[in-house]
Task: inverse folding
């Protein structure tokens, strides 16, 4: 790869007209401030977004989660791009994006973060996915934004970085009964329960939920910690508040406050709920996904994450999921995380730069 630099494109070449859709379908801007349209998007995603290969688990997005993921500060309605059926106005396709300032090596760029590409199962032979992507790119470029960042489980040309998912059972008995993919089956259940047992209470002094009064100090802590990574967000105070301030059923954030009132550490995780299909008694699964963790050296990272596991278990999460980005590799094996068979690839659109190892990726994109 060459050094970073823009590949192509200029504002003069932005197409004015929307791209053509098959007859009987029309473009729409999904109004997430309208509860009815937000519920429509929930329904589309929950019925069509993705399922595991064996058709046992399907995401179950809440309206509150979608508002958090798609309406950060400075969000743009026109970047919530939908397709509707002309005859009944049913929402059958969607792709979204949110604006984000991102550091790519030594360059800061305003980008679009792409989220929730989804087409109704019955329409996938109509090749609507490519035209959805092109239409969103057109709308993004109309705002003078030429770059995008996104993640995907599939390999496309060419990943900026490729990461692995790791998971830690919190409710092992349930996961075994569900035959959850990747859960170790090489030891008897009682021995496995003992092996995965967590402490009953947290151990880190000064650990508490984040409050609104913590935003300024937390912003400074994150800025200092993120300097060591090659791909990282450049958050404003308002974005720190939006992404990290706890929201019931969406995002949990904890800080460690020292005796002098300084914030020394932060850890956060967001909730991804799923429906369990075709099981006699388990109907739902609650997964906690590690979001951002940062420390100025006040607390051992493995001890902080162990406390985080304790907190997630106390909130009735069934499993804790971590990407091996940032400094996360240092605690995964020590805390008995299992490596899954799933990869996640990071991509940059319209920007060329050297590939980076997962430990240089300082960004997590909820999807």
Result:
């Amino acid at each position: 790869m060459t050094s970073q630099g823009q590949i192509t494109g200029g504002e003069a070449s932005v197409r004015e007209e929307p791209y053509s859709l098959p007859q009987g379908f029309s473009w729409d801007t999904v109004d997430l401030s309208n509860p009815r349209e937000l519920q429509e998007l929930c329904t589309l995603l929950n019925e069509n977004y993705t399922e595991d290969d064996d058709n046992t688990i399907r995401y179950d997005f809440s309206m509150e989660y979608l508002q958090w993921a798609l309406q950060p500060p400075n969000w743009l309605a026109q970047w919530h791009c939908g397709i509707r059926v002309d005859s009944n106005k049913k929402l059958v396709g969607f792709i979204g994006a949110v604006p984000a300032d991102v550091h790519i090596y030594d360059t800061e760029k305003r980008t679009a973060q792409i989220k929730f590409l989804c087409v109704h199962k019955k329409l996938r032979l109509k090749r609507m996915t490519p035209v959805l992507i092109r239409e969103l790119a057109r709308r993004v470029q109309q705002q003078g934004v030429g770059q995008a960042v996104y993640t995907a489980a599939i390999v496309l040309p060419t990943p900026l970085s490729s990461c692995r998912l790791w998971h830690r059972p919190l409710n092992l008995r349930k996961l075994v009964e569900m035959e959850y993919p990747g859960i170790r089956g090489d030891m008897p259940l009682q021995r496995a329960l003992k092996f995965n047992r967590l402490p009953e209470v947290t151990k880190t002094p000064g650990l508490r939920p984040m409050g609104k009064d913590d935003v300024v100090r937390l912003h400074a802590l994150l800025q200092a910690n993120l300097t060591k990574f090659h791909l990282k967000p450049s958050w404003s105070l308002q974005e720190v508040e939006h992404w990290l301030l706890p929201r019931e059923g969406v995002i949990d954030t904890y800080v460690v406050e020292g005796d002098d009132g300084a914030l020394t550490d932060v850890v956060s995780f967001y909730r991804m709920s799923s429906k369990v299909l075709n099981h006699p008694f388990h109907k739902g699964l609650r997964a906690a996904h590690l979001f951002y963790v940062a420390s100025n050296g006040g607390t051992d990272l493995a001890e902080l994450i162990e406390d985080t596991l304790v907190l997630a278990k106390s909130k009735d999460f069934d499993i804790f999921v971590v990407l091996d980005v940032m400094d996360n590799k240092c605690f995964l094996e020590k805390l008995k995380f299992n490596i899954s068979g799933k990869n996640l690839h990071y991509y940059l659109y319209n920007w060329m730069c050297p590939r980076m190892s997962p430990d240089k990726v300082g960004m997590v994109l909820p999807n």
The CA atoms of residues 76 and 242 lie 15 Å apart. Residues 128-142 form the longest helix (15 residues). The domain at 5-152 is CATH 3.40.630.170 (Aminopeptidase).
